[in-house]
Design brief:
By secondary structure, this protein is an alpha/beta fold. It has two domains: 238 residues, Rossmann fold; 155 residues, Adenine-n6-DNA-methyltransferase TaqI, Chain A, domain 2 (Alpha-Beta Complex). Helices cover 32% and strands 19% of the residues. The protein is elongated. The N terminus is likely disordered.
């Protein structure tokens, strides 16, 4: 039996297929106006396609979700944070939930095509299910699949924002289970950022406007949950370490308590449609737990039961600014290798606080040459440089004024004063970064690093010899030898790093974005100094 042909189809055609699975007009009675309009705009499928799709649903497949991933390309799904969870992860999550309790209600936030909804409704036949999503096609797919499976009477599908969901009181525990959407803060409306700030502060938490949508969903769940409830979410793992994940870490150490956290290895690729390091977080509400079970998982097949891991006391987690250290499995360097940090210190470049003011083309400025520093200001400049940066003519300059302007001669001081008047009109003296400097107008560039490295891209880092003494801002790291190293050793070091370092050695975020913090880069294995000096490494 063939799958429905989704190649070249449109969202409306898929919606029309969902309507066909709902038995046409008869099943459309409970649909919202948005869902009805979307389905009405599509081409009615043939009876054979409807029958084939129904058989696939009955066989345990997700033909609608599979078709959706063909209809909507990854960049289109990214706007709504849609990633589709493989069955093996869903099975592990529902198994933990079944081990933990018997809910009378299940809530699936961001239900997508209904994978978690159907799994939970099957595992917990006595529970009602609430499935919520902002996408009318997602809610149509969930309605269609639950109808085919004969679960419609127990499943309430809500088209709306999960942060606005309200739940009636029930006599028994609620299970929250799913894959909250991953949308970065750039895609979140200001009113919802304000919602996060207000709600988090009411809970005594430290919010950040940089938080992604999955963190919003955790907070919304905490508002809905009552003592005795429990849940398990799979999300990106970046909240373990980043500053804007602090709120979630605090939340999980309170009454809304983390039970266990399982971090999937980047090479496991838990989501077929997104390269991202995943974390499965099990939580309970109102339980006084002494610690949190934490473990790294090398592959989805190793998930097993989610009740295992190394117990980390909650006070240790509360004192830690990053949680990945508790799951990091960093083996010692192999024989004949050392950590990069034994040879160099890795420093991120200076933060200007206002690139539009402090970064410019030299020919556009009327300033003394001695305050203009050719600098790497975009990662692409290092990727384009290849092995070495040999020419700084294509680089912009960073304006780095001395803290003590009295060192300038009168003519230079007049030039600088004119520039500072302009900088004030751009409010460069009022930002957070400027307020933390000794002098708001002095960027404080580091000395040139002999090796420059990118640290965030959807590809391995570039390691480039800096032969022109260019400075760098915070889009790159500088590698600074702890002791003076000969030029040929630095050449060999950069050569080795270019050939050996892979993206998987960093932290993988949504879309396959790999990031290397300075200390993480310092842990990279490299040949010994003697080997680098001889150049006898492969």
């Amino acid at each position: 039996m063939t799958r429905p042909d989704a190649t070249g189809s449109r969202r409306a055609d898929l919606a029309a297929l969902c309507l066909g699975l709902l038995d046409g007009a008869e099943g459309a009675d409970g649909l919202s106006a948005e869902e009805q309009d979307l389905a009405a705009a599509g081409t009615c499928p043939t009876e054979d396609v409807v029958a084939a799709t129904r058989d696939l649903v009955l066989a345990g497949g997700d033909p609608l979700g599979d078709a959706y991933r063909q209809v909507v390309p990854p960049e289109g799904r990214r706007a709504l944070g849609q990633t589709y969870t493989p069955a093996s992860i869903i099975e592990a999550m529902t198994a933990w939930a079944a081990d933990h309790g018997r809910p009378v209600r299940v809530v699936d936030p961001g239900c997508g095509s209904g994978r978690f909804t159907l799994a939970a409704a099957t595992v917990f036949p006595g529970a009602d299910v609430v499935a919520c999503d902002v996408d009318p096609l997602a809610t149509l797919m969930t309605r269609a699949s639950t109808h085919v499976m004969g679960l419609s009477e127990r499943v309430e599908v809500v088209l709306g924002d999960y942060r606005e969901l309200r739940l009636d009181a029930v006599d028994g525990p609620t299970l929250f289970i799913g894959n909250p959407p991953f949308v970065r803060h750039h895609g979140i409306a200001p009113r919802w950022k304000a919602w996060l700030t207000e709600t988090a502060r009411a809970w005594g938490l430290h919010p950040s406007a940089l938080a992604g949508l999955h963190i919003h969903f955790f907070l919304a769940t905490a508002r809905l949950a009552r003592p005795g409830d429990f849940g398990v979410f799979v999300t990106s793992s970046e909240w373990l370490d980043v500053q804007y994940g602090r709120m979630l870490r605090e939340l999980l150490l309170g009454p809304f308590a983390a039970y266990s956290v399982h971090v999937l290895d980047p090479e496991a690729v838990p989501f077929a449609d997104a390269l991202v390091t995943g974390a499965i977080t099990c939580f309970t509400v109102g339980e006084a737990l002494p610690g949190v079970l934490m473990r790294p998982v090398r592959g989805v097949e190793e998930l097993g039961r989610l009740g295992q891991g190394c117990e980390i006391p909650r006070d240790r987690l509360a004192a830690a600014s990053r949680w990945s250290v508790f799951v990091r499995d960093t083996p010692p360097p192999p024989e004949g290798y050392i950590e990069l940090g034994e040879l160099v210190r890795v420093h991120r470049g200076a933060v200007t606080g206002a690139n539009r003011v402090w970064v410019a083309w030299a020919q556009d400025l009327d300033l003394p040459r001695r305050v203009l520093f050719p600098s790497v200001t975009r990662a692409r400049e290092l990727f384009a440089a290849g092995d070495a940066l040999e020419d700084d003519s294509a680089l912009k300059v960073v304006i780095d004024l001395p803290v003590d302007l009295d060192v300038l001669d009168p003519a230079e001081r007049r030039q600088v004063n004119r520039f500072l008047r302009y900088a004030r009109t751009q409010h460069a003296d009022q930002g957070y970064v400027a307020s933390r400097r000794r002098a708001w107008y002095s960027v404080g560039l580091r000395e040139p690093a002999p090796v420059l490295a990118t640290y965030m891209a959807r590809r391995p880092p570039a390691f480039v010899r800096n032969r022109v003494g260019a400075r760098h801002i915070n889009i790159a790291h500088g590698l600074y030898p702890r002791e003076p190293l000969p030029s040929h050793v630095l050449d060999n070091l950069a050569l080795y790093l270019r050939s050996a370092v892979t993206s998987s050695q960093g932290r993988i975020y949504a879309g396959g974005l790999a990031k290397f913090e300075p200390r993480e880069m310092e842990r990279l294995p490299v040949p010994t100094l003697a080997s680098l000096a001889r150049g006898d490494f492969s």
